[in-house]
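Recap for those who missed Tuesday's class. We walked through two folding examples back to back. For each one, the amino acid string is listed first and its predicted structure tokens come directly after. Nothing is annotated here on purpose, so try labeling regions yourself before you check the end of the notes.
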Amino acid sequence: MSAADMEAPLCLPRRPLTRLPRAALPQGTVDTHFHVFRAGAPLNTPRSYTPDIATISDWIEFSGNLGIARGVLVQPSVYGLDNRVLLEALAAYPDRLRGIVVIDPETAETEIERLDRLGVRGVRINTRNKGGLPLAAARTLAESIAPLGWSLQLQINPEQLPDIAAPLSGIRLPIVIDHLGFIPLARETRSLHVDALKRLMDRAEAYVKVTAPYRLTKDVNYDGFAEVACALAASHAERLLWGSDWPHTELWDGMPDDTELVETMQAAIDDPAVAEKIFVRNAEALFFGR
């Protein structure tokens, strides 16, 4: 084991489901953000973490228990540009899954078209983890994938939110922000960050994943999450997406309960019409139109 591997600690294992949410998820719910890992698949070096193995079969069982109809599988940073585990999953469940890959910005058009046929619908930029693509790659990637209607998925820091629009000017494609842009939920700065997300969503085809509150606060009750979700839903319900963030990578000190996470989201968005958009319709239109 190399020194770099030793610096990538093993993630906590996911918690098993012990009960179902008190209220069922809307019929047709789409999980727009989860990862899978296969034993023996080569891991990137350097990387930010070493995953606990959670396979596509594990997610199929998980999603079936929760009533999740379909999913969007996101390439994790620990696999770098090697999308084989993701593509294996898409091949196994072509009607149920779509994928977000990580590719070299200079990838040939023929390869992008091949990935499209396999069910890929976007490319991920990740400035927060070792092995992720930088924001500087955004324009080149956007120019390559826009003709296919793919989205550009961004896992970035909140201070980078104002820097997104400029490099993509003149290119029309969906932009999707992971995990509320990692904005801190502290009351003192909450409204400023919410305003930044709203300004971004005012741009045509910009979406925000209302996901992973445990990445935004250390408060076990996720104080502030409901307020942020409600504020964004009041003005941009058609631009919000829900995802499980299963199996909750990069955690070493406490693992969230998936049922409680679903109920937290359900409590924040209690209007059935709005919930239908966030859990089902927005993701259907963005990822499953073909």
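Example two. Treat it independently of the first, because the proteins are unrelated.
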Amino acid sequence: MTGEWTVPRVKSGIPGFDELVNGGFPKGTTVLVTGPTGSGKTTFAVQFVYKGVELYDEPGVIVTLEERAVDLRREMRAFGWDIEKYEKEGKIAIIDGVSAVVGLPSEEQYVLEGNLNTEDFLRYIYRVVKAIDAKRLVIDSIPSIAFRLKKEEEIREVLLQLNTILLEMGVTSILTTEAPEPSRGKISRYGIEEYIARGVVLLDFIEREVELKRYLLIRKMRETKHSMKKYPFEIMSDGLVVYPSGEIY
């Protein structure tokens, strides 16, 4: 007798979201979170790691390539998230990928040097993931990888390498990227990120009664059933919340 295969799930830690993906992200998948500036991509990604530790005891790594680790910690304290507490416990690691690029000294435990090539960049992330036995990984953001490695013209090759090593590590990963004009179908900076990732979540704005409202759309998620509707979400005092019953058509 053959039993039905059940896909192992990783809870997102985002209220309302897991209902839209049949109980959580497929374990070990790579998800692209895309959207215009200010849509909540970094909050979504960091919440995934922070709540992974707080609620499910799953260590996580955050690679921050757009702002210094110290600034990221400060911003996330606004949600009541004490990232530093879990860093001291060895359950969260923040890799500072900004300081060296802008020529600032860094006192962080994990720092990317300013002149790493693609292979060294990926190898360093791999080492940190293994060092804390991470189950979750965030890289914020893909355009900053291209800028940092001066490989923008070879971004496809870099992303293919990145996706391969993420799958090899077995972590469940979120990558963020910019969506310049999602209303016109351009949902990523380079137009190829969505083809490499196994899942794509779009965060965007829609105008309702002379006011901008946030919405979320799952464009793709392999290995699971998922909704294809637009759902409202808000960034509250304690993080991001999705409203599965409040569909935007």
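Answers for example two:
The chain has one domain: 9-242.
The chain has a mean pLDDT of 89.
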